[in-house]
Design a protein that fits this description.
alpha+beta; Rossmann fold; Dna Ligase, domain 1; 17 helices
Length: about 675
Amino acid sequence: MTIKKILIANRGEIACRVIRTARKMGIATVAVYSDADREAMHVKLADEAVHIGPTPSAQSYLVIDKIIEATRRTGADAVHPGYGFLSENRAFAERMEQENLTFIGPPVGAIDAMGDKITSKKLAARANVSTVPGYMGLIADADEAAKISGEIGYPVMIKASAGGGGKGMRIAWNEAEAREGFQSSKNEAKNSFGDDRIFIEKFVDQPRHIEIQVLGDKHGNVIYLGERECSIQRRNQKVIEEAPSSFLDETTRRAMGEQAVALAKAVGYHSAGTVEFIVDGNRKFYFLEMNTRLQVEHPVTELVTGVDLVEEMIRVANSERLSLTQADVKLKGWAIESRLYAEDPYRSFLPSIGRLTRYRPPQEGFLPDGTITRNDTGVFEGGEISMYYDPMIAKLCTWAPTRSAAIEAMGRALDDFQVEGIGHNLPFLSAVMGHPRFHSGNITTAFIAEEWPEGFQGVEPDEDQARMLAAVAAFAHLTDETRKAGILGALANHPRKLGSTCVVAAGKHSWTIGATLSEGRLTVDFENDVSMEVSSNWRPGDEHGRFLVNGQSLGIKLAKASTGWRLRFRGVDLVHRVMTPRVYELSQFMPVKQAADTSKQLICPMPGVITQVLVKAGDTVQAGQALATVEAMKMENVLKAERKAVVKMVKAAPGQSLAVDEVIMEFE
């Protein structure tokens, strides 16, 4: 049987990704969509689209009968599940067989065995795969969870058996956290996967998260396509991935790959899958889980191997043999993926929703410097980011011959990526790319927590960066002044001069400069005989520009602010004021606006739905006590008291949708 039409039982960027490969192979595609996704990109890209229900995924994307009905209506003969939703659902795969539909994924038995983390660990141990110590049995309640955690020894990792993507996962360092984490993990697991079973295992300190990509066909052939380093994580959610890992040597890579293949063969695996390991500082590795689906981070493997994993999945589902053997697999160059999320890094990465008023990805494809840029996305300018689905906006990938070149290419791509209208983590991704520890490759899954223990507050530019940005601000200011003079007819083709009395101030830096702009080239004279030349084709009104500063090319986002020019570059986000010395002198006496006092309020930190209110008016609460839970973008967030207080009034109820900064309760 030859696949002629594929229905993608998913949404967003992964649906778009599958559609692109299917189109390349000459296969027709069908999209499904909920109320919220009626105008989504995957709907526009597919050859056909079928509405499958209301916005909540539990009433649309997770309803098997609706997916089946969509295949009947369109005549689709195959289904690609993407990742998440029904991708690792045994009942869904079984239904495909019953309906005589081709499931573009692994066999039911492999999903059953490996999709369940408890069962998979037992099977891995029998297949002589190294596993992490833990308790694989079912856990009845928080009391039993605390008892088991104590026996294993803190810290422990509490996980949802059917989990993935960081959902239903908590680290507990003591008994109280084990009890609370157990209940939160159960709630998240039930909401995300319809399965609230939990298991507990030892948390390996200073770990790296490294996974092996496997690929098998229906003829018994299984290979591995190298590894991916996924250690840059926040709340167990991957943020940046790369292939290969800078930590592994060839001996460890081969050992991990061979164990991954052995496990896949033990369950009769075919299609694309990933075997995840945790690796300690001595390169000792332990099996974590097997994901019986395509991984979010699969593009970096494609970039270093040249293998289209989606195409291989389709060909395997079509009963074809793998197009390559283990000997054919060669890792070439280095690839990095940055996950662009609708999360505000300045507000503890809380979810952000709203309309994308500006969405301009960087140039894709082979670039003149020998690098490659790829952007997998499912959104477009003018579209909306909903609170109902995963907060991912795009996956930006770069490839280069070396790791350092790939990092630099990513830094430039992030500089050129324009996103406005919502909170997003672009500044944070840029900060990671510029971090010396990341450059060194000395990373663990604790990297983010260790380097930003108080949360991300932006990047403070070093002296050289600060001067370059000041020069760009002066360029923007003079270019704008020149434009105004031209409009008024006051410019007679002579250079505009600021002279030596101008001050540029930004953050903790300020300089007295002299500057001359002529024919798009600015000469800036700083104090101490430092000078810079700036040239650019940027014009007032452009929100992004590429500037040549002393021969160095910089991609900078600019916007006119009430007090100057807001410049964003490599995680730096500062307003640069350009003024006379007298104005600068007087500005030092301006009062600083004080933040509103919210110490007697519990405010909603993100747009979401209240799922629990755990206290009532008149209750005395202690510091650290859980007060309420908010669910947003499929994650459950527990809000706790910052100090001892008495609850004066509860203003929100379970089931209520709240906007960011709405008051949940007040204290006396």
